[in-house]
Amino acid sequence: MPRDFMADKALKGMPPLEKSPGNLVHMTNVTVQNMGQEDSKGVRTLHPFTQSLTSKDVESCVRLEEATFPPEQRCSREKFLYRFSKCGELCIGLFTSASPDSEANKLCTAATAGPVLTGEPDRKLVLLAHVIVTKTTNRVVKDEDMAIPEDGQEQSALNARLGHQEQGRTIALHSLAVVPEYQHMGLGKMLLKAYIQRIQASEVADQIALITYERLVPFYERQGFQNRGRSDVKFGGEAWINMVCPLQDWHDTHDSGDFT
Fold first, then answer.
1. Distance CA 62, CA 46 (A)
2. Of the ranges 22-36, 130-144, 158-172, 246-260, which one carries the lowest mean pLDDT score?
3. Per residue in 200-210, is it b (16+ CB within 10 Å) or e — as a string?
4. Which of 1, 95, 168, 177 has the fewest CB atoms within 10 Å, measured from its CB?
5. Angle between helices 58-68 and 77-87 in degrees, nearest 10
6. With the CA atoms of 65, 80, 162 and 197 taken in that order, what torsion angle do they form, in degrees rounded to the nearest 10?
7. What are the strands, taking DSSP E only, across the chain?
8. 207 pLDDT exceeds 80?
9. Highest-pLDDT range among 112-121, 145-154, 236-245
């Protein structure tokens, strides 16, 4: 589920979405601006960049979920593998290149980080945040969107509506997570706005839908989401609220309000 995040500036210049497996991995530098006092831990020095997620990132994503969500609300390893295999080009991670003595190398995701392919074998590609999604034909997120088909059963009538629906025009946002050490410092909202911009520009969907806690509704409304009432999703044992962001008329409102 999306969490309680803050930011001031959306990423710009994010790569286009591509379906070809050979073009899933893109790197785009991120400029972090106007952080002010929120940058007390040196977010500017991270030089973060975005990259599409693949099966190689699963263990880091699992660790990130473990650090940010209660057990009953985490995305499982099996769900990560399924979602990356079906629509990895729609899922993105925010990474930093970490040296052995950097603060980022102490994060929960550093232990599973892969090497940076720059000729510097000691540097790691450390995951800071991720956006995990699928596509759905529903207008709001349903339990069937949260589920995945059983192995070998994707074509059965029972499983036909479970999980990713390639023909869908709604992006179901399942997880927006930031490592605890860098929450409330700008990365979460920055990544959310950037993702909305990316999907809007790519024209692969008409809207983005998510479910969230009632206390977070005002935050998502400031990012362009609309409250669609109580969700009937049973996932995680929470009373969720449906939020939908129509993409046709969305624009960056540059919300700077504090939200903790």
1. 22
2. 22-36
3. bebebbebbbb
4. 168
5. 130
6. 80
7. 28-29, 49-52, 92-98, 114-115, 124-136, 170-178, 207-212, 226-230, 241-246
8. yes
9. 236-245
Could you identify the residue written with the tokens 């286009």? 16
Whose tokens are 């990544």? That residue is: 191
User: Is the CA virtual torsion 9, 15, 20, 22 positive or negative?
Assistant: negative
Amino acid found at 73:
Q
Q: How far apart are CA 2 and CA 216, in angstroms?
A: 9
208 neighbors 159 (Cβ within 8 angstroms): no
Question: What is the phi-psi region of residue 130: left when phi exceeds 0, alpha when psi lies from -120 to 50, beta otherwise?
Answer: beta
For residue 71, give the 3-state DSSP assignment.
helix
Residue 71, pLDDT score: 95
Instruction: Give the range among 22-26, 97-101, 243-247 with minimum mean pLDDT.
Output: 22-26
Average pLDDT, the chain: 82
Burial of 152 (0-12, 13-18, 19+ CB in 10 A): exposed
With vertex at residue 50, the alpha carbon angle to CA 46 and CA 52, rounded to the nearest 5 degrees, is: 145
Rounded to 10 degrees, the C-alpha dihedral 180/186/192/196 comes to -170
Residues 8-31, mean pLDDT to the nearest whole number = 42
* HSE-up of residue 167 (Cα within 13 Å, Cβ side): 3
